[in-house]
Amino acid sequence: MPGEVLIVDFDGMGPTWTKVVQHGLKMYPDATHGILADADFTPLASTLSKWDLDRSCSKHTFTVLEADGTGTRVMDWIYRNIQGARVERRTHQILLVPKTSEDQPTYQRQIGFTVKEFFGGYQDRAGNKSGRYLQWLYKDLEEMPGDARTIYYLAKEHMELIGPDPVRDLRTKPPGPGAYHLRKSLEYYQMRSAMDVLGATGSSSVDEERYWAMLKAAEICERWLYNSTCCLEYWGQAWALDPPRADAPFYIGQHYRLRRDGLNAVKVLRKTAKMTMPRRNNFQWPYLYECLRHIELVRAGSHMTQVLICVLICVLICVLMRSCMYPYMRLYMSRTSTCQAAR
Question: Which residue, 85, 81, 79, 78, is CA-closest to 64?
Fold first, then answer.
Protein backbone atom coordinates (compact mmCIF):
# COMPACT_ATOMS: atom_id res chain seq x y z
CA MET A 1 0.00 0.00 0.00
CA PRO A 2 1.51 3.37 -0.99
CA GLY A 3 1.93 5.96 1.72
CA GLU A 4 4.15 8.53 3.37
CA VAL A 5 4.87 10.21 6.69
CA LEU A 6 3.49 13.76 6.81
CA ILE A 7 5.07 16.23 9.25
CA VAL A 8 2.81 19.11 10.33
CA ASP A 9 2.52 21.59 13.19
CA PHE A 10 0.35 20.03 15.89
CA ASP A 11 -2.58 21.98 17.34
CA GLY A 12 -4.71 19.16 18.69
CA MET A 13 -6.26 16.27 16.81
CA GLY A 14 -8.90 17.96 14.65
CA PRO A 15 -6.81 20.73 13.02
CA THR A 16 -3.91 18.31 12.49
CA TRP A 17 -6.02 15.52 11.01
CA THR A 18 -7.69 18.01 8.68
CA LYS A 19 -4.26 18.77 7.21
CA VAL A 20 -3.68 15.04 6.73
CA VAL A 21 -7.09 14.56 5.06
CA GLN A 22 -6.44 17.47 2.70
CA HIS A 23 -2.97 16.16 1.88
CA GLY A 24 -4.41 12.72 1.17
CA LEU A 25 -6.88 14.20 -1.31
CA LYS A 26 -4.05 16.11 -3.02
CA MET A 27 -1.72 13.11 -3.27
CA TYR A 28 -4.35 10.46 -4.07
CA PRO A 29 -7.17 12.25 -5.94
CA ASP A 30 -8.39 9.01 -7.55
CA ALA A 31 -8.91 7.25 -4.21
CA THR A 32 -12.62 6.96 -3.48
CA HIS A 33 -12.39 6.68 0.31
CA GLY A 34 -10.16 7.46 3.28
CA ILE A 35 -10.17 6.24 6.87
CA LEU A 36 -9.10 7.85 10.12
CA ALA A 37 -7.50 5.43 12.56
CA ASP A 38 -5.92 5.68 15.99
CA ALA A 39 -2.54 4.04 16.43
CA ASP A 40 -4.06 1.53 18.87
CA PHE A 41 -6.54 0.21 16.25
CA THR A 42 -5.81 -3.14 14.61
CA PRO A 43 -8.12 -4.00 11.71
CA LEU A 44 -9.68 -7.42 11.38
CA ALA A 45 -8.74 -7.85 7.74
CA SER A 46 -11.37 -10.49 7.06
CA THR A 47 -14.12 -7.94 7.78
CA LEU A 48 -13.11 -5.37 5.16
CA SER A 49 -14.34 -5.62 1.59
CA LYS A 50 -14.02 -2.82 -0.93
CA TRP A 51 -17.39 -3.89 -2.31
CA ASP A 52 -19.01 -2.59 0.89
CA LEU A 53 -17.89 0.96 0.10
CA ASP A 54 -20.67 3.07 -1.40
CA ARG A 55 -19.58 6.12 -3.37
CA SER A 56 -22.97 7.76 -2.93
CA CYS A 57 -22.56 7.89 0.87
CA SER A 58 -20.47 10.60 2.49
CA LYS A 59 -19.40 8.38 5.39
CA HIS A 60 -19.38 4.78 6.54
CA THR A 61 -19.44 3.60 10.13
CA PHE A 62 -17.58 0.58 11.47
CA THR A 63 -17.36 -1.34 14.76
CA VAL A 64 -14.63 -0.98 17.38
CA LEU A 65 -14.08 -3.85 19.83
CA GLU A 66 -13.06 -2.07 23.03
CA ALA A 67 -9.75 -2.87 24.66
CA ASP A 68 -11.21 -4.27 27.89
CA GLY A 69 -13.33 -6.73 25.92
CA THR A 70 -16.61 -5.72 27.58
CA GLY A 71 -18.28 -3.74 24.83
CA THR A 72 -18.29 -2.16 21.41
CA ARG A 73 -18.82 1.24 19.88
CA VAL A 74 -19.40 2.53 16.37
CA MET A 75 -17.10 5.03 14.65
CA ASP A 76 -17.95 7.06 11.53
CA TRP A 77 -14.36 7.51 10.37
CA ILE A 78 -14.53 6.15 6.81
CA TYR A 79 -15.13 9.08 4.47
CA ARG A 80 -15.50 9.91 0.80
CA ASN A 81 -12.24 11.38 -0.44
CA ILE A 82 -13.74 14.67 -1.65
CA GLN A 83 -13.20 18.39 -1.23
CA GLY A 84 -14.54 19.79 2.04
CA ALA A 85 -13.88 16.74 4.23
CA ARG A 86 -12.45 17.92 7.54
CA VAL A 87 -12.02 17.02 11.21
CA GLU A 88 -13.17 19.38 13.96
CA ARG A 89 -12.18 19.74 17.65
CA ARG A 90 -8.75 19.32 19.17
CA THR A 91 -9.75 16.18 21.05
CA HIS A 92 -12.78 13.86 20.93
CA GLN A 93 -12.90 15.03 17.35
CA ILE A 94 -15.65 14.62 14.77
CA LEU A 95 -15.40 14.00 11.03
CA LEU A 96 -17.46 16.25 8.75
CA VAL A 97 -17.96 15.40 5.07
CA PRO A 98 -20.11 17.25 2.49
CA LYS A 99 -22.97 15.54 0.71
CA THR A 100 -21.94 13.71 -2.44
CA SER A 101 -24.94 15.13 -4.32
CA GLU A 102 -27.96 17.37 -3.75
CA ASP A 103 -30.33 14.39 -3.85
CA GLN A 104 -28.07 12.07 -1.83
CA PRO A 105 -30.23 9.08 -0.79
CA THR A 106 -28.15 8.10 2.28
CA TYR A 107 -25.59 10.27 4.05
CA GLN A 108 -23.87 7.45 5.97
CA ARG A 109 -24.20 3.69 6.25
CA GLN A 110 -22.65 1.06 8.50
CA ILE A 111 -20.48 -1.66 6.99
CA GLY A 112 -19.10 -4.87 8.46
CA PHE A 113 -15.53 -3.62 8.91
CA THR A 114 -14.30 -4.16 12.49
CA VAL A 115 -11.19 -3.08 14.38
CA LYS A 116 -9.78 -4.23 17.72
CA GLU A 117 -8.66 -1.51 20.11
CA PHE A 118 -5.63 -2.07 22.36
CA PHE A 119 -4.38 -0.41 25.52
CA GLY A 120 -1.21 1.66 25.58
CA GLY A 121 -1.65 4.39 22.95
CA TYR A 122 0.77 7.31 22.85
CA GLN A 123 -1.44 9.59 24.96
CA ASP A 124 -1.58 6.94 27.70
CA ARG A 125 2.17 6.32 27.65
CA ALA A 126 3.11 10.01 27.54
CA GLY A 127 1.38 10.76 30.87
CA ASN A 128 -0.99 13.57 31.90
CA LYS A 129 -3.41 12.60 29.13
CA SER A 130 -6.48 14.09 30.79
CA GLY A 131 -4.65 17.27 31.79
CA ARG A 132 -3.60 17.82 28.19
CA TYR A 133 -7.13 17.04 26.95
CA LEU A 134 -8.59 19.58 29.39
CA GLN A 135 -6.34 22.29 27.94
CA TRP A 136 -7.53 21.49 24.42
CA LEU A 137 -11.18 21.25 25.49
CA TYR A 138 -11.16 24.63 27.21
CA LYS A 139 -9.54 26.09 24.08
CA ASP A 140 -12.31 24.56 21.96
CA LEU A 141 -14.96 25.91 24.35
CA GLU A 142 -13.55 29.41 23.94
CA GLU A 143 -13.98 29.08 20.18
CA MET A 144 -17.37 27.29 20.41
CA PRO A 145 -19.17 28.62 23.53
CA GLY A 146 -21.88 26.28 24.79
CA ASP A 147 -20.81 23.42 22.51
CA ALA A 148 -22.54 20.28 23.83
CA ARG A 149 -19.85 17.78 22.84
CA THR A 150 -17.07 19.84 24.39
CA ILE A 151 -19.04 20.20 27.63
CA TYR A 152 -19.60 16.44 27.80
CA TYR A 153 -15.91 15.67 27.41
CA LEU A 154 -14.89 18.36 29.88
CA ALA A 155 -16.96 16.40 32.41
CA LYS A 156 -15.32 13.13 31.36
CA GLU A 157 -11.75 14.40 31.61
CA HIS A 158 -12.35 16.08 34.99
CA MET A 159 -13.70 12.75 36.23
CA GLU A 160 -10.50 11.03 35.07
CA LEU A 161 -8.54 13.30 37.44
CA ILE A 162 -10.51 12.80 40.68
CA GLY A 163 -7.81 10.58 42.12
CA PRO A 164 -8.01 7.49 44.34
CA ASP A 165 -10.03 8.99 47.22
CA PRO A 166 -12.19 11.97 46.21
CA VAL A 167 -14.44 11.47 49.25
CA ARG A 168 -11.52 12.20 51.57
CA ASP A 169 -10.57 15.18 49.39
CA LEU A 170 -14.11 16.52 49.79
CA ARG A 171 -13.97 16.24 53.58
CA THR A 172 -10.51 17.67 54.27
CA LYS A 173 -9.90 21.35 54.93
CA PRO A 174 -8.77 22.76 52.63
CA PRO A 175 -10.29 20.26 50.15
CA GLY A 176 -7.88 17.99 48.28
CA PRO A 177 -7.37 18.16 44.48
CA GLY A 178 -9.88 15.40 43.79
CA ALA A 179 -12.71 17.53 45.21
CA TYR A 180 -12.25 20.22 42.54
CA HIS A 181 -12.28 17.74 39.67
CA LEU A 182 -15.25 15.83 41.11
CA ARG A 183 -17.37 18.98 41.44
CA LYS A 184 -16.36 20.25 37.99
CA SER A 185 -17.19 16.87 36.48
CA LEU A 186 -20.65 16.87 38.07
CA GLU A 187 -21.18 20.50 37.00
CA TYR A 188 -20.44 19.73 33.34
CA TYR A 189 -22.39 16.44 33.32
CA GLN A 190 -25.40 18.28 34.75
CA MET A 191 -24.96 21.02 32.17
CA ARG A 192 -24.86 18.48 29.32
CA SER A 193 -27.85 16.60 30.78
CA ALA A 194 -29.93 19.78 30.47
CA MET A 195 -29.03 20.33 26.79
CA ASP A 196 -31.68 18.92 24.45
CA VAL A 197 -29.54 19.09 21.31
CA LEU A 198 -31.44 16.64 19.11
CA GLY A 199 -34.86 17.74 20.36
CA ALA A 200 -34.16 21.23 19.07
CA THR A 201 -33.55 19.82 15.58
CA GLY A 202 -36.69 17.70 15.54
CA SER A 203 -34.65 14.49 15.33
CA SER A 204 -36.29 11.25 16.48
CA SER A 205 -32.96 9.56 17.31
CA VAL A 206 -31.55 9.29 20.84
CA ASP A 207 -28.99 11.80 22.10
CA GLU A 208 -26.64 9.15 23.49
CA GLU A 209 -24.17 11.72 24.78
CA ARG A 210 -26.93 13.29 26.88
CA TYR A 211 -28.02 9.84 28.09
CA TRP A 212 -24.51 9.04 29.32
CA ALA A 213 -24.14 12.46 30.92
CA MET A 214 -27.20 11.61 33.02
CA LEU A 215 -25.79 8.20 33.97
CA LYS A 216 -22.42 9.65 34.96
CA ALA A 217 -24.02 12.46 36.99
CA ALA A 218 -26.00 9.79 38.83
CA GLU A 219 -22.83 7.76 39.41
CA ILE A 220 -21.08 10.73 41.02
CA CYS A 221 -24.09 11.43 43.24
CA GLU A 222 -24.33 7.83 44.43
CA ARG A 223 -20.71 6.73 44.60
CA TRP A 224 -19.01 9.78 46.07
CA LEU A 225 -21.65 12.24 47.29
CA TYR A 226 -23.97 9.61 48.83
CA ASN A 227 -26.99 11.51 47.53
CA SER A 228 -29.80 9.05 46.74
CA THR A 229 -32.23 11.75 45.63
CA CYS A 230 -29.76 13.09 43.07
CA CYS A 231 -28.76 9.73 41.58
CA LEU A 232 -32.33 8.44 41.31
CA GLU A 233 -33.34 11.69 39.62
CA TYR A 234 -30.69 11.41 36.92
CA TRP A 235 -31.19 7.68 36.35
CA GLY A 236 -34.90 8.39 36.00
CA GLN A 237 -34.22 11.11 33.43
CA ALA A 238 -31.97 8.76 31.46
CA TRP A 239 -34.60 6.01 31.47
CA ALA A 240 -37.23 8.46 30.23
CA LEU A 241 -34.87 9.65 27.48
CA ASP A 242 -34.19 6.12 26.17
CA PRO A 243 -36.80 3.68 27.55
CA PRO A 244 -35.68 0.58 25.56
CA ARG A 245 -32.18 0.70 27.00
CA ALA A 246 -31.56 -1.31 30.19
CA ASP A 247 -28.62 0.56 31.73
CA ALA A 248 -30.57 3.18 33.71
CA PRO A 249 -33.22 0.86 35.23
CA PHE A 250 -30.49 -1.68 36.00
CA TYR A 251 -28.63 0.92 38.08
CA ILE A 252 -31.86 1.99 39.79
CA GLY A 253 -32.60 -1.62 40.74
CA GLN A 254 -29.04 -2.18 41.91
CA HIS A 255 -29.23 0.99 44.02
CA TYR A 256 -32.34 -0.29 45.80
CA ARG A 257 -30.83 -3.76 46.20
CA LEU A 258 -27.67 -2.40 47.83
CA ARG A 259 -29.94 -0.68 50.36
CA ARG A 260 -31.73 -3.97 50.97
CA ASP A 261 -34.97 -2.62 49.51
CA GLY A 262 -35.79 -5.85 47.72
CA LEU A 263 -39.37 -4.92 46.81
CA ASN A 264 -38.50 -1.76 44.86
CA ALA A 265 -35.41 -3.40 43.38
CA VAL A 266 -37.42 -6.31 42.00
CA LYS A 267 -40.12 -4.01 40.58
CA VAL A 268 -37.53 -2.26 38.43
CA LEU A 269 -35.28 -5.20 37.59
CA ARG A 270 -38.20 -7.33 36.37
CA LYS A 271 -38.66 -4.73 33.64
CA THR A 272 -35.03 -4.98 32.56
CA ALA A 273 -35.36 -8.76 32.30
CA LYS A 274 -37.84 -8.30 29.44
CA MET A 275 -35.72 -5.86 27.40
CA THR A 276 -33.79 -6.69 24.25
CA MET A 277 -30.61 -4.79 23.48
CA PRO A 278 -31.47 -1.88 21.16
CA ARG A 279 -29.13 -0.72 18.41
CA ARG A 280 -27.05 2.15 19.69
CA ASN A 281 -23.69 3.61 18.68
CA ASN A 282 -21.92 4.05 22.00
CA PHE A 283 -20.99 1.90 24.98
CA GLN A 284 -23.08 -1.14 24.24
CA TRP A 285 -22.90 -3.59 27.14
CA PRO A 286 -23.91 -7.05 25.81
CA TYR A 287 -23.18 -8.85 29.08
CA LEU A 288 -25.82 -6.75 30.82
CA TYR A 289 -28.50 -8.21 28.51
CA GLU A 290 -27.03 -11.70 28.31
CA CYS A 291 -26.67 -12.35 32.01
CA LEU A 292 -25.97 -9.56 34.51
CA ARG A 293 -29.50 -8.15 34.76
CA HIS A 294 -30.79 -11.62 35.64
CA ILE A 295 -28.13 -12.11 38.29
CA GLU A 296 -29.05 -8.76 39.82
CA LEU A 297 -32.73 -9.71 39.87
CA VAL A 298 -31.96 -12.87 41.83
CA ARG A 299 -29.80 -10.85 44.23
CA ALA A 300 -32.66 -8.39 44.72
CA GLY A 301 -35.10 -11.24 45.30
CA SER A 302 -32.94 -12.52 48.13
CA HIS A 303 -33.69 -9.30 50.06
CA MET A 304 -37.44 -9.74 49.87
CA THR A 305 -39.32 -10.94 52.92
CA GLN A 306 -42.05 -12.61 50.90
CA VAL A 307 -40.87 -16.22 50.59
CA LEU A 308 -43.19 -17.14 47.74
CA ILE A 309 -42.22 -14.16 45.60
CA CYS A 310 -38.54 -14.92 46.12
CA VAL A 311 -39.02 -18.50 44.98
CA LEU A 312 -41.05 -17.45 41.93
CA ILE A 313 -38.35 -14.99 40.89
CA CYS A 314 -35.69 -17.69 41.18
CA VAL A 315 -37.78 -20.10 39.10
CA LEU A 316 -38.51 -17.43 36.48
CA ILE A 317 -34.85 -16.54 36.08
CA CYS A 318 -33.88 -20.20 35.96
CA VAL A 319 -36.23 -20.68 33.02
CA LEU A 320 -35.04 -17.53 31.24
CA MET A 321 -31.32 -17.94 31.73
CA ARG A 322 -30.64 -21.50 32.86
CA SER A 323 -27.10 -21.73 31.52
CA CYS A 324 -26.12 -18.35 32.92
CA MET A 325 -28.00 -18.35 36.18
CA TYR A 326 -28.02 -21.85 37.63
CA PRO A 327 -24.73 -21.53 39.57
CA TYR A 328 -25.77 -18.10 40.89
CA MET A 329 -29.21 -19.35 41.88
CA ARG A 330 -27.68 -22.14 43.93
CA LEU A 331 -25.29 -19.68 45.53
CA TYR A 332 -27.98 -17.18 46.51
CA MET A 333 -30.52 -19.75 47.60
CA SER A 334 -27.90 -21.29 49.88
CA ARG A 335 -26.83 -17.93 51.33
CA THR A 336 -30.20 -16.34 52.06
CA SER A 337 -32.41 -17.61 54.83
CA THR A 338 -35.62 -16.72 52.98
CA CYS A 339 -34.86 -18.72 49.86
CA GLN A 340 -33.16 -21.44 51.87
CA ALA A 341 -36.27 -21.93 53.95
CA ALA A 342 -38.45 -21.94 50.85
CA ARG A 343 -36.19 -24.50 49.24
Answer: 78
Residue 47 burial by Cβ neighbours in a 10 Å radius (0-12, 13-18, 19+): middle
Express each pLDDT in 246-282 by its tens digit: 999 999 999 999 999 999 999 999 999 999 999 888 8
What phi and psi, each to the nearest 5 degrees, are found at residue 110? -80, 140
C-alpha–C-alpha distance, residues 273 and 298, integer Å = 11
Best CA proximity match to 252, nearest among 232, 279, 276: 232
- SS3 call for 173: coil
pTM listed for this prediction: 0.79
Residue type, 212: W
**Amino acid symbol at 117:** E
Helix (H, G, I), strand (E, B) or coil at 23: helix
CATH class given for the domain over 128-243? mainly alpha
Q: Are 205 and 198 in contact (CB under 8 A)?
A: yes
Residues 237, 212: contact at Cβ < 8 Å? Answer: no
What is the residue extent of each domain of the chain? 13-123, 128-243, 272-343
